[in-house]
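Our consortium's second objective concerns turning raw sequence data into structural hypotheses that experimental partners can test. To show how far this objective has progressed, the report includes one record in full. It was chosen at random from the queue rather than selected for favorable results. The single chain below, 515 residues long, was entered without modification.
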Amino acid sequence: MSFLARSLTSLLIALLVLFSISASADAQQRKVLIIGVDGLMPEAVGLPEMSNINSLYQDGKGILTYGYTEDMTFSGPSWSAILHGVHRDRHGVDSNQYHGHDFTGYPHILMRLKAHNPDLYTAAFVTWSLLQNNFTDTDGNPVGVDELVYHPRQEAGDAMVTDDLVELLETGNPGAVFYYQNDIDGAGHSYGFSIDKPEYREQLRITDSRIGRVLDALKNRREVLSGQEEWLIVLVTDHGGVGTGHSGNLYRQRFIPMILSKTEAHRWIKPEVRIRNVDVSRTVLTYMGVAESEFYELDGHNILERDAYRIPKAGFGKNLLINGDGESDRGFLDRELDQAITGWRSQEHTGNKDGYHSMTLIITPPEVEYTGAENLTENVQSSNLFTGGSKGMTSKMTQIVELDDYQSEIDARCVNFHLSAYLGGTGSREDRMEIRAAFLDKNGDIIDSALLPAVTREDRKSETVLIYRETDGFVSPGTRSVLIELNAIGTTENEGIYSLADQLSFKLNCDRERN
């Protein structure tokens, strides 16, 4: 065979291999399994009793992260936020009775996937009777699911739906599945939501073994073994608990774990980024290839995408705060809905009194004015404002800015900071906002601090105004992070906190001549 012939033959083989690989990739189907585990405490994940659940994220197979559930920590509002991707002011569920709910404008996630791809087989397996409301129309007929399976939890329902799902995975062709387990929540109500309770811990083991059966059935599917199917598995819960209950707005009731498998692309998630269970729908829809135009109205973010959280990139002269303007989320008409704000930690600071609210977001009222550094009115484009909650006398949110990327310049004594914000309040109320910055060493000890003083009612002349505040300073050698703390301070018990803040900014600059 001539050199030319050999070359042409090699080229043809290479093209055939490339075509085969491309065809195989194109043929691969993306599918999703959402595992809903009711009442799962965050510290339960990682225990020896949870070996199957742990396998979803350990050894680089996925990621375990933590975040917040809805402010009404009943199962109804939380599962509705997960399945429909919107907060309770939109889905209408504010109790476990589902009174007044309206899902017509915000269909559940399986229904959206079915609309996108009518050939996709969708199924839901539930053991709480009221959870069926999320998958039915007003007459109780299943909508958006090819299969809606219900067995009462009190009659070994969790085991029965597990059997049903295993059979579907072994013999059918599911494309999007919601699989629900309720017994851990039952153990929490009976014995306490705590891994220190033997009965709760034993139920963790039992539920984990059931989930293990489902995972084995999925992994052993012929299409999975051959690489034809790629499954995203999302494990999420609706609430935590305190004692034997979870009705309230306490941190231990709102703080939840979430696991996503098959997600090597988003190792960017850091502890300071708190996900929310309302993020599940947008994440799954994006993964499944549904166009943003088909679900643009959803409230959550795509957890798999770094840019969805607007995380700043390192650099001098840039605002290093995540969501410093509050524009990453949807604001509300009033302070009553206690939203967990993207990029900020707030639920940890709510205290131990039932019903206390943290910082939230409201839509910027049309009468709000902004006053700049020269006491001149400024045209600030703003959709949302940070404000205090509807209960209590104080609200607080915090964010830690890691400074590892600036370590050499800081220790060379050439870095200074600029902290600024618009602070204000509402009408004649005395409520106020203030911002503190604590500069921390590698052990988390405070080296230095800075304060943006509050804007008082006198400063505002009893008008609804936000006034620009700023301060500069030197970043001491040894500083490794900065804790930014926004405090909303009220004056009237249980009337809400009417202080306001916007355009929070923390920047670093390097003065090479300082050293």
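The partners drew two points from this record. The chain has two domains: 22-309, 347-510. The domain at 347-510 is CATH 2.60.120.260 (Jelly Rolls). Both points have been shared with the crystallography group to help prioritize constructs.
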